[in-house]
Amino acid sequence: MTSLVLTDISQLTADGFEKLPDQTIYDVVNVNMSEKPDWLFDKNPNGKVPVLEVDGGDTLNDSFVIAEYLDEKYSYRPLHSRDPWKKAKDKLLIQLFNKVINALYKLFLDPNNLDKQSVDNIIGELIVFEEELDARGKPFFGGERPGMVDYMMWPWCERSDLLRIMGGDRWCLSKQKFQKLMEWRNAMKEDDAVKESYLEPTLHAKYFKSRLGGYPDYDIRV
Amino acid sequence: MTSLVLTDISQLTADGFEKLPDQTIYDVVNVNMSEKPDWLFDKNPNGKVPVLEVDGGDTLNDSFVIAEYLDEKYSYRPLHSRDPWKKAKDKLLIQLFNKVINALYKLFLDPNNLDKQSVDNIIGELIVFEEELDARGKPFFGGERPGMVDYMMWPWCERSDLLRIMGGDRWCLSKQKFQKLMEWRNAMKEDDAVKESYLEPTLHAKYFKSRLGGYPDYDIRV
């Protein structure tokens, strides 16, 4: 299968997951989301990324739908639990994390919103994840290795240092309050799939700065 | 397994799906969503229905997460396609239908919004479903039998006659434009699972009227 993954720099690309089998060839195309090209709407009427295009031109959109598709299609190392109950609980956790993503994205795109209230809201949501990780008693939400929850959360946790860069040290998470998430973050950075797509916070900051300036450097990784 | 399904009258209840195996016993508890009881927030911090509670008190929320859980747990007649690509496409279709649900719900809860523009918006969204059903060339989105898309859409299509009751015949869908969806609707009404939970449009209208009046008759089916 040949696939084309349309993404912008701020999205998890397919290589953020474990390497696909060798016979799977895919290209990544970064898209300027500030001035969307017309052809993007042919691939996805919503005009959003990511988009996965396969042989024959058929496409999927929505990062979670794409992630679950890849997980089912290439099932040699499933990211979702095989236990339907655990899988359902993980899906709810991913839904809940969308609140954190939305709040973070708003801050990244308009740093004027960066005040105590908005950061407190994010911290309030994150406590659920700290408690859940503690309750699971393993280094990752997926257990001994990262699973679907870990990989769906990661791109936004990788960017969380942006808050510190944008707002100074007072926006750091409390190490006492978020001990488990801090350990999780360090462990995630050692994961092969994460390493492969990892960008330094300063590079993320550079991208968002270019985007705020009206000229997003969407090929910043290239 | 004993389950408790918390729902209000306007939600699909678990018995809207094919009958669960005989050893599965579940109770349905209807909830007054205008004056939510405190215990609902113990079952689901969001305070939304449906909620599925299993032995031991653990819960799931979100109608689609619950539906997928039941589909995986009781897999003797899967509602989702086993083909990951088809399944992913169906999930996108269900996401798209959420736009119709949101638009319909707004109209049901505030009939003052019932104008040509809002109905045209719904019709615009529904055309995608008419074309998709036509392209699939089968009576149901799931093929020869209803599948996940069919059952996720159905509760709202069952209620669509409310528009006619509320707004008169001018809000009927065009039989020429929506021939496939009309045939689908008639076929769905013959499905055993649909029959079991089917409510006449006049009963739906009575419920929404009671809700608009401030005293929702949430046990209207009992």
Automatic annotation (TrEMBL), chains A, B:
The keyword Oxidoreductase applies. GO terms for molecular function: glutathione dehydrogenase (ascorbate) activity; glutathione transferase activity. Residues 83-208 form the GST C-terminal domain. Keywords: Oxidoreductase. It holds the Pfam family GST_C_2. InterPro entries: Glutathione-S-Trfase_C-like, Glutathione-S-Trfase_C_sf, Glutathione_S-Trfase, Glutathione_S-Trfase_N, GST_omega, GST_Omega/HSP26, Thioredoxin-like_sf. PANTHER family: GLUTATHIONE S-TRANSFERASE OMEGA (PTHR43968:SF6), PTHR43968. This is Glutathione S-transferase.
